[in-house]
Amino acid sequence: MSGARLRRRWPVLALMVSTLISATASLASTDSHFTLEQIRSVPYSESLTAAAAAARIAWVSNDRGRRNVWVASAPDYAPRRLTEYNDDDGQALSSVSLSSDGANVVYVRGGDHGANWDESVPVNPSSHPQGGQVAIWSVPYAGGVPRLIGEGDYPTISPEGTRVAFIKEGQAWLAAIDGSTAARRLFAERGQTSDLRWSPDGTRLAFVSKRESHSFVGVYRDDATAISWLAPGVSRDESPRWSPDGKQIAFVRTPGDGGAPPAATPFTIRPWSIWVAEVATGRASRLWQSGAGLRDSWPDAFLDWMGAQHVVFQSYHDGWQHVYAVPRSGGAARLLTPGDYMVESVALSPDRSRLLFSANTGDEPDDIDRRHIYEMSLTMSRPRALTRGVGLEYSPVVSANGAVAFLGATAHRPPRPAIMTPGATAPRWLGAVSSMDERLLSKLVVPSRVQCLAEDGVIVRGQLFQPREQSAKGPAVVHVHGGPRRQMLLGWHSIEYYGNQYAINQYLASQGFTVLALNYRLGIGYGHDLNYPSHAGRNGAAELKDVRAAGKYLQALPRVDAARVGIYGVSYGGYLTSMALAHDSKLFAAGVDIHCVHDWVMIYDMKQPLRTSRYEIPPGTQEAVDLAWRSSPVSSVTTWKSPVLFIHGDDDRNVRFSQTIDLTRRLDTAGVYHETLALPDETHHILRFANELKMNLATVEFLARMLGSPRKLERDDSGRSAP
């Protein structure tokens, strides 16, 4: 049946499919089949950290929404669960850290970290009558009941391990790590305090004071001494980092707001420099200055001291995000990580002699879509690979005994910790995977790296998931990730939000769908120019060409029915899903749009960028607003024909729920068939496992119903609505 006939007959087909769907919620676990709940029930590890002076590590494991802290220590590194949170209540764990001696673990429970606003405001996705909180807790490494330090966020443990500084309501607070004394506000300052950093001896605290148009770096000593401001000016100063001897602080300086407003352009150019201040006097001098181009703009990335005489930092100015070192005495910056690859997570050893990082490079031809661990020192000519192969390894940390711990995954196994002790040639994976999980995970397909050309010649990349069992042409789906500064990988993703989409792709493949996980322009991993393209997003939506190329690529595959190609995406990927349906309904027969922006002009109004000073309007503003409208799905409703499902949590702090309300009302007027699934009290990051499963089931069931499923699917009890 053609896509057009399928859409015209959707009510009849819906009734037929609903009659055929099994009354049970799970499928028999035979052959290559598994359920969505099964594939998302394998624990997921994240937030790995290490103690500075003890051979101990800690991390968070999410098991069906039950998030807990786990620990391990030398010599055996046997994993041990430290906390006992046994409810799927949507309360995330973040800012996990070990005291220097490893005696205590500190963490934050609650909030929606990664949100665009209100990230430290409590969430309540379980709709509990008592609501939630954002609070800092500590628990002894040896075990015991967690102790409440206080309501707040972003804790940092003092070097001697007895105190915790943190942020509460935009100010700095202090408490004992064992919760034995009530928390108190450390000091009063006019700005919003952030980025707390203890001096190496624990006697002072550096911080950033964010003001409306600028920011300062300050140093607090004690209640009787005035705050010292380091070279205060008219700039935005941020990212303070203490030298190993505690006498100097390196920080980043970018221009403050003001001056002639810049022309409306796709990306803001932010030249930046590294400054070093003498803490005793507050005087500072510029150590390094970027260029003035877009590649030189401050990427809000890594900055620290390596040894006592070098500052290391990340920059994109050679076309790839790399690490550079500049001597404290000044001079040219030395490239530490040369090559056509991206340096992602970076860490220093406790003695600051070794730099550890993950990068998308290696011995395998497809490593650009993977991650491996490397180490570098100032005396080495090139980085040395610590891991190789077809897996993904990332988030390295160095323990006090020199062991390197990291998280890793494969195409079959979700992330878990690993340890490489000094002298080891291969990692030791921590914790055994159950035999039941092993049987389940063995059914997953191994995605392959593919690429094609967009209509303007840009290379479009992605990973292809193909069904193991397919005797006739079947449906296909383009998956569009969010961000947009993300990269889908050849395995379980390092970020669980995207790991969930990997699981959906695997499930669709097990049900006879061919899936292409698209890495479109604006994403990371393929160099600066693809990361920062012209005419993208609200400035022309050039990345829609990549989505179109992916759809046509699937149509041309011999095992794909060209009339049964669909699309789904989350966040920014949801935006591109709606753009594809609005502009290419003949190509995409149906889609699922999950919590995304539909109207860029509404974003303009919300952030109020039309007037940057009291008297001036940026040049080209009206043209930019007009272009933003044309780059929005709401501007092309008249050409939208394909059915769509919208999913959105109404406590979304990244994309306002009203964006989905607005578009559905426009589709009502245009007579376009759509369904909606609202998740009350849920955030952008879908913090409850039950809500995630509801979202996943609704997504795959809608695609199967609209595109025609080769197999019987799980029952969908999501409770979504249709007009």
Q: Strand order, biggest sheet?
A: 33-34-36-35-37-38-39-40
Strand percent estimate: 25-35%
Class based on secondary structure composition and strand pairing: alpha+beta
Could you name the CATH class of the largest domain? Alpha Beta
Taken together, the total number of domains comes to 3
Gyration radius, rounded: 26 Å
What is the fourth-level CATH superfamily of the largest domain?
Answer: Alpha/Beta hydrolase fold, catalytic domain
Main beta sheet strand tally, sense and closure: 8 strands, mixed
The second-level CATH architecture of the largest domain is: 3-Layer(aba) Sandwich
Number of strands: 40
Assembly level: single chain
**How confident overall, as mean pLDDT?**
92
CATH T-level fold name of the largest domain: Rossmann fold
Shape by Cα distribution: globular
Compute the number of helices: 12
Which descriptors apply to this entry?
single chain, 723 residues, alpha+beta, Rossmann fold, Neuraminidase, 3 domains, eight-stranded mixed sheet, four-stranded antiparallel sheet, disordered N terminus
Walkthrough of the structure:
It is a single chain. The chain is an alpha+beta fold. The protein folds into 3 domains: 243 residues, Rossmann fold; 143 residues, Neuraminidase; 136 residues, TolB, C-terminal domain (Neuraminidase), CATH 2.120.10. It contains 12 helices and 40 strands. The strands form 9 sheets. The protein has an 8-stranded mixed sheet with strand order 33-34-36-35-37-38-39-40, with helices on both faces. A 4-stranded antiparallel sheet has the order 1-2-3-4, with no helix packed on it. Strand 13 and strand 14 form a beta hairpin. The longest helix is centred in the C-terminal third of the chain and has 19 residues. The protein is globular.
